[in-house]
Amino acid sequence: MLSEFVARYPGTKFIIRASNKKEEVYDGTADVVFAFERMPDDPDTICRRAGTLQNGFYAAHEYAAINGLPASEADLGDHKFIRIVGKDFPPSIVDWISEHVADEQIVTEVTNLETLFTVIKMGQGIGPLPSIFGDPMDGVVRAFPPPKVLDMPSWMAISPHAAHRPNVRKFVEFFAPRFKRLRNSRM
């Protein structure tokens, strides 16, 4: 999507970074932020619903070959899991793991998304990922049907400091419908 936008608007420069700091859109540090689970609550921030982010559980092909995969949520007991901890992960996913996976099944805890990718790909156990990352990721497979309760609304929040700029308006007009189609096509 970004390459399509740059082809249409040559000279566009993106600075992309992963962050869970909601204040970035409020203080002008970021022009556009994608928020998941909760809509940003600053009354000056311009928010557009961007779709639904589906989350699932994934395992390395190696893990699946050795251990098999659970057929459903009811079949989790014989499997190893990766626990996510810290403020960088949505509470709904953290809570789901705590409610459905016993402590003795946890083989690794991670505190950021990059480490989570690595640990899943190494075959350590089954871990949660947004489906837009997990489904196309080489070397991993969806472990079981995704729990619908983990689906999250996604929002595009536009900084009030940047909303009037033509390049930001073009980006929002271009990106919003494509992002929504991408999210909904993964379901």
Describe the structure.
By secondary structure, the chain is an alpha+beta fold. It contains 7 helices and 8 strands, in the order ααβββαβαβαβαββα. It has helices at residues 2-8, 23-27, 61-67, 91-100, 113-121, 131-134, 166-185; strands spanning 32-36, 46-53, 55-60, 81-84, 106-110, 127-130, 140-144, 152-158. The strands form 3 sheets. It has a 3-stranded antiparallel β-sheet with strand order 1-8-2. A 3-stranded antiparallel β-sheet has the order 6-3-7. The chain has a two-stranded parallel sheet with strand order 4-5. The model has no long low-confidence stretch (mean pLDDT 84).
Rounded to an integer, what's the Rg over CA atoms?
Answer: 18 Å
How are strands sequenced across the largest beta sheet? 1-8-2
Biggest β-sheet description: 3 strands, antiparallel
Q: What is the helical fraction, as a range of percent?
A: 25-40%
Runs in which pLDDT lies below 50 for 5 or more consecutive residues are none
Write a concise keyword list for the protein shown above:
alpha+beta, three-stranded antiparallel beta sheet, 7 helices, elongated
